[in-house]
């Protein structure tokens, strides 16, 4: 398959002949313009960053201008989200993402998929967020165990100039594994592709839509190679009968889905350059990276029951690049053009931003070098920031060693002053510190599992006071605090409630006799550690090759 968009558009079309005689509302031989806008993995970024990039203020201006353009040409528009509105920016986290949902309402979102991070809080918070949103939060595959009924609307229907459009919501079934287990005692996540098939067949029989779009939070994995993750958009598109889904608006893997060749995304997509979406089994698959950095735009034409993609692009929202000047200094310039921030939106958001910053701006300590917490590091190698987090947990629990999943480290801390905001960006989930006393033989069994968690996944384990060799199946040469592990000696492990209850596939230790939930929140534990030990020496926490993989 070629990925010249011009060639793709000319040669590929979605056949909806099955519906042409049943919709009845659109006119034969008339061409309709339909534009789908999309974002995903917002993660609390309602406010622009320190460089003036993204934010809902600029996003509203951009979406409004596209709406006006589409309307002037007689077309229709839908704005969809691939989910994960929660978790990532302290000002948002402390306010349960109220500014984000209210901002999305002002922009005029039509629907969103429920993401796994919508469950970082109790269900009551998500129900409140549904009230702040004027648009439906969709998921067809989330059920209440006790009633076997869906917890959310499975789909929403839209009529655009007589074209009947169904939008189905789907959530990764990894949520039960990667979310906080204490919130899932009565919630079941079923296989999305199976639920999608059932819903599409029900829609075809009862509603007879002309276009079916899945708004998903499942991830895009090249050629369906999803590793330890649950199957994503590519796998679902391939598993369904051709023609069941016209388009998938995705999220979760936080990629710009711009294909370099068949089944291979561009590795380092440059903002503002052409973007060819993926296509699998007749289904277009799109994803707009993360944080509102882009608004994805797919322009379709609908004629006589056939949907054709005319143009696709990822529009950067005030993204900038660093350029070197002739005098040796540098500056940040826009990849494309500047987008003004909408005044009404900024009036709304400023109230929330000021409230959040007042709670977060107080200095709590300092560090003399960078503490590494980037996603591209903490899911692959041991890092000094993970060691700081684990040292804090170990000290508070009076433990011998500590373990946590790399996916629980959400940001880095730069050299200089550290504020509470810095801490909450690193640990936004609000997990509790726990500990458990185990015999050495139990410790070895535990480490044999966690040390062999797959690299490039949130489950990848970070350690402190542990050295070992992992071979993919087990561990050997295990030492705790520099001393060989003794089978009959009792050791205390410190970790977080998320991991202790089986999150990310870790062994469930919350039922063991020696288990204690301290009730202390992870970010507060880290905050007090930094206050006590500042100024921190970044080099003192650098890994020294204690964890070896064969």
Automatic annotation (TrEMBL):
GO terms for cellular component: outer membrane-bounded periplasmic space. It comes from the Bacteria. Keywords: Hydrolase, Metal-binding, Nucleotide-binding, Signal. It is an enzyme of class 3 (hydrolase). Residues 35-253 form the Calcineurin-like phosphoesterase domain. GO terms for molecular function: 5'-nucleotidase activity; metal ion binding; nucleotide binding; UDP-sugar diphosphatase activity. Residues 1-25 form the signal peptide. Residues 364-508 form the 5'-Nucleotidase C-terminal domain. Its EC number is 3.1.3.5, 3.6.1.45. InterPro entries: 5'-Nucleotdase_C (IPR008334), 5'-Nucleotdase_C_sf (IPR036907), 5'-Nucleotdase_CS (IPR006146), 5_nucleotidase/apyrase (IPR006179), Calcineurin-like_PHP (IPR004843), Metallo-depent_PP-like (IPR029052). GO terms for biological process: nucleotide catabolic process. Belongs to the 5'-nucleotidase family. This is 5'-nucleotidase. The lineage of its organism: Bacteria, Pseudomonadati, Pseudomonadota, Gammaproteobacteria, Enterobacterales.
């Amino acid at each position: 398959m070629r990925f010249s968009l011009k060639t793709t558009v000319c040669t590929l079309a979605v056949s909806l002949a099955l519906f042409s005689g049943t919709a009845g509302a659109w006119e034969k031989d008339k061409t309709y313009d339909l534009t789908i806008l999309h974002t995903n993995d917002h993660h609390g970024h309602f406010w622009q960053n320190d460089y003036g990039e993204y934010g809902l203020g600029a996003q509203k201006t951009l979406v409004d201008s596209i709406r006006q353009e589409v309307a002037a040409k007689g077309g229709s528009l839908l704005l969809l989200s691939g989910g994960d509105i929660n978790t990532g920016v302290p000002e948002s986290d402390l306010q349960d993402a109220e500014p984000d949902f209210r901002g999305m309402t002002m922009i005029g979102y039509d629907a969103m998929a429920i993401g796994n991070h919508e469950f970082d809080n109790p269900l009551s918070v998500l129900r409140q967020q549904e009230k702040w949103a004027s648009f439906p939060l969709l998921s067809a595959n989330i059920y209440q165990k006790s009633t076997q009924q869906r917890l959310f609307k499975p789909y929403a229907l839209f009529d655009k100039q007589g074209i009947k459009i169904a939008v189905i919501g789907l959530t990764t079934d990894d949520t039960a594994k990667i979310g906080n287990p204490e919130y899932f005692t009565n919630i079941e996540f079923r296989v999305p592709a199976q639920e999608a098939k059932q819903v599409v067949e029900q829609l075809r029989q009862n509603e007879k839509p002309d276009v079916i779009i899945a708004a998903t939070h499942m991830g895009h994995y090249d050629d369906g190679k999803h590793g330890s993750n649950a199957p994503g958009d590519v796998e679902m598109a391939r598993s369904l009968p051709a023609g069941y889904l016209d388009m998938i608006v995705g999220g979760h893997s936080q990629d710009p889905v711009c294909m370099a060749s068949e089944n291979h995304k561009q590795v380092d997509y440059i903002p503002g350059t052409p973007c060819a979406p993926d296509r699998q089994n007749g289904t277009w698959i799109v994803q707009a990276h993360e944080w509102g950095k882009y608004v994805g735009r797919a322009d379709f034409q609908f004629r006589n029951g056939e949907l054709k993609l005319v143009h696709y692009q990822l529009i950067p929202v005030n993204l900038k690049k660093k350029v070197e000047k002739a005098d040796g200094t540098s500056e940040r310039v826009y990849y494309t053009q500047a987008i003004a921030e909408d005044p009404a939106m900024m009036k709304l958001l400023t109230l929330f931003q000021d409230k959040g910053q007042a709670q977060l701006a107080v200095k709590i300590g300092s560090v003399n070098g960078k503490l590494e917490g980037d996603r591209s590091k903490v899911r692959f190698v041991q890092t000094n920031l993970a060691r700081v987090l684990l040292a804090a947990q170990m000290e508070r629990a009076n433990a011998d060693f500590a373990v946590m999943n790399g996916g629980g480290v959400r940001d880095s801390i730069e050299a200089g002053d550290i504020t509470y905001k810095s801490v909450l960006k690193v640990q936004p989930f609000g997990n509790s510190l726990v500990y458990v006393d185990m015999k050495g033989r139990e410790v070895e069994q535990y480490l044999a599992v966690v040390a062999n968690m797959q690299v490039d996944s949130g489950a990848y384990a970070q350690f402190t006071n542990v050295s070992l060799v992992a071979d993919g199946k087990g561990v050997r040469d295990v030492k705790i605090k520099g001393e060989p592990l003794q089978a009959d000696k009792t050791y205390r492990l410190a970790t977080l409630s998320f991991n202790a209850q089986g999150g990310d596939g870790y062994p469930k230790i919350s039922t063991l006799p020696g288990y204690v939930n301290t009730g202390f929140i992870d970010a507060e534990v880290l905050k007090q550690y930094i206050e006590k030990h500042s100024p921190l020496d970044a080099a003192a926490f650098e890994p020294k090759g204690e964890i070896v993989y064969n």
